[in-house]
Sequence to fold (399 residues):
Amino acid sequence: MTNNNKFKVVLAGRSERSLKTLAEALERTAGGVVCSIHLISDGQADSLSDLEPLPDVLVLRFDGESLSVLAALVDSSADSRPPLIVVGPAGDPEAMRLAVRSGARDFLPEPVQADDLVAAVERLRNEPARGTPGPRRADVIVVNGAAGGVGTSLVACNLALAFATESRAPTLLLDLDVAGAPLTGFLDVSAGLGLPAALAEVEYLDEQALPGYVAKHHSGLRVMGTPAKSLLSPGDVDPDRFAKLMAILSSNFRYIVVDASHSLDPVAVVALGMARRVVLVVQQSVLQLKQAARMMNALCNEIGVPSDRILVVVNRYQKRSTVALDDIRRALGHEQLTALPSHYKSVVASVDSGIPLLEYDHTSPVARGIIELQHEIVGGVHVEHRGLLRRALPIFSGD
Ligand SMILES: Nc1ncnc2c1ncn2[C@@H]1O[C@H](COP(=O)(O)OP(=O)(O)OP(=O)(O)O)[C@@H](O)[C@H]1O
Ligand SMILES: [Mg+2]
Fold:
């Protein structure tokens, strides 16, 4: 086989010695692969954007000090670079977030075993040739609460159902609450193998195996959660494995709605790094508003979510509250809000019966507000809810 016919891999990074070790292992173990090394010196983060000739796979190894290389890749166009495998420090949420946002097809935490790198390269080699349309990546919508109990799960569950039924597109509801896992209960489905098993077996997951790990709601919505017998502490979930799982899920669904509860732990950060939209659920109290402002600040300034990707939902909205919608707008620096009224009777009956609100009472103002939220996410146009609230509950009139 001439070099022209071989599968070309460029290994890029700052340490020639580590790259050589990986290249030797690859050429020794994977047949028909030719490797070359691209050294990146400080301040040359963008040298990766014009690799000539373009390799079949780019393996980027970086350390804590060279995050800027990855950040530059995030900013470059994903269409103009080869499929990317990232090798980096384990358990570094910032590194993980950048890897996910750079569109990396695989993330291998250090120290990398040669077998893992070979397997990752082989997976990309076996994909359909470039130029043929690859699997579409899902739009990820992460729902976060400003605090516990604000209605995050209610919104996530019904928003996912709205995607499945209004868009009629393959939709997954992913429950990151591994310690409580309420969402299979909200939909009265059994979890199947669920999230912990999918994480444990992520290397073997593919389109054929996936249905065993997700529950199917009769609406068509798929749900991945944690079965009651496998509940975990949040710290037990490995963000690196979770990032791999998200990559697989996102090529199998059109929409993924993630219930991230009110946590910004490393696993939630991975999901947030992939999010096309983030829905922040708040309620009206002075304390909650402070928490919401802190959460907004962390989302935008620590995690790097652009503020125009964030939608704010005021759940259990009451006209006669010490905290008005304008206070929330000011505190969060966010003009457009979606207000969902408190509808205790239908919400509680829906949760108790395992029939999601969109099915239990499709015309309730909460259900209609969530459907409008889904339309807003798809269409990008905010819907003014005051008229809806007035019609639904006369108590809101005069707002
Ligand atoms: N709009 C609403 N109207 C009436 N009751 C509501 C509304 N939203 C939420 N609730 C009530 O609040 C409870 C908690 O909601 P949910 O489980 O969605 O909150 P959460 O933020 O996900 O909580 P956790 O922090 O425990 O995950 C629901 O069981 C329901 O009784
Ligand atoms: Mg919840």
User: Anything to note?
Assistant: The CA atoms of residues 142 and 195 lie 17 Å apart.
